[in-house]
Design goal:
Largest sheet: none
Order of helices and strands: HHHHHHHHHHHHHH
Shape: extended
Number of helices: 14
CATH architecture of one domain: Orthogonal Bundle
């Protein structure tokens, strides 16, 4: 099969995200910019959801005509892509000397925080592999979490996608609950109603396993069980088994299946039995979600500033190196002139 040496033409939104698209010359009023357009669109999405975002709505919020926006963003899809990029920002930096499990869990928790702070991100369709700078940076950070292990690159990628997929799925379920019951009292009423309905319909003869779960009170509002918390620990335990197997550190005869563990190991890893219930309540607190959103935005700005500092330092070294070369030539020329 023949291959072309020509570089593929980047979609406008991707090019804008990477900063390689030509931007229009701005007129006398310089308030309008791609950054301003995206910020206004995100404000609308934060307040009313993604469905409320349109080129017309963003233009009205900024005080411009709709057509003026098209000089910067050629389509709504491009604007939404840039909103996704800005919402996620850059990934968190792992703590110094953090092990792979701590780093992986931090990445998972940070993804959850983004979805909880800006649930409209869940309405943006997933279109293939990561293609924007921040999205690639998150995948890179996820893979880097497993750098200390002997896992193959394929297993590192699988583990990264497993955890990010769990964060996405968990966030979808949490938002469904939030939409069904926007506050704690309403949620308890909904859960109690569902539990009573199931108890009425489910019999031990027809659904013996579900019946046992109901009898233990694991599906009602009084339950302290958090299947999400247990689920992510099961995933990390399974990855841990894979890490041990890749390093040849599993004891002889140990079960190397992903997720294999002693009964109760996941619950023990969670520590305080009340922590899951407390976190479930905190998750629904609007002030807590807003505080998390602001913290994420601040961290994003900080890392962007650090990136600019590193780029400035690199540029400075290049300029200094060239200046030293010029100075060396001038001095050598002057010295040679004295010797003649």
């Amino acid at each position: 099969m023949e291959t072309s040496d020509e570089e593929p033409e980047l979609p406008r939104g991707i090019a804008l995200a990477w900063g390689v698209a030509a931007t229009p010359q701005r007129g006398p009023r310089r308030e309008l910019s791609i950054e301003g357009i995206v910020a206004a669109a995100m404000e609308i999405a934060d307040a009313e959801g993604l469905a409320a975002v349109s080129m017309t709505a963003v233009a009205a919020k900024l005080g411009y005509t709709t057509m003026s926006l098209y000089r910067y963003v050629s389509a709504k899809e491009d604007m939404v892509l840039l909103m996704y990029e800005q919402a996620f920002g850059v990934p968190p930096r792992p703590e110094d000397n953090a092990g792979w499990r701590e780093a992986a869990r931090a990445m998972f928790d940070s993804q959850l925080a983004v979805y909880r702070a800006r649930p409209w991100v869940l309405d943006i369709p997933i279109r293939g592999i990561p293609s924007t700078p921040n999205a690639v940076a998150w995948m890179d950070a996820g893979l880097a979490a497993f750098q200390p292990t002997a896992l193959s690159q394929a297993d590192r990628l699988s583990a990264t996608l497993l955890l990010s997929g769990q964060a996405y799925w968990q966030s979808l379920i949490e938002r469904m609950y939030t939409r069904a019951a926007p506050d704690e009292t309403a949620l308890e009423e909904v859960e109690r109603s569902w539990e009573q309905m199931l108890r009425l319909l489910v019999t031990a003869e027809q659904f013996p396993a579900v019946s046992r779960v109901l009898e233990e009170g694991l599906m009602g509002p009084e339950s302290t069980n958090d299947p999400f918390a247990v689920g992510v620990e099961l995933m990390l335990d399974g990855i841990s088994r894979l890490v041990d197997a890749s390093q040849g550190t599993l004891p002889e005869g140990a079960d190397q299946r992903l997720g294999a563990q002693e009964p109760g190991a996941a619950e023990a890893a969670l520590g305080d039995p009340l922590s899951a219930e407390i976190e479930a309540v905190v998750m629904k607190d609007s002030a807590a979600r807003e505080a998390s959103r602001k913290r994420l935005e601040a961290e994003t700005r900080l890392r962007q500033a650090e990136t600019k500092v590193r780029e400035a330092q690199r540029k400075e070294q290049e300029v200094l190196s060239k200046a030293r070369d010029r100075a060396r030539k001038q001095v050598e020329k002057r010295v040679d002139g004295h010797h003649q």
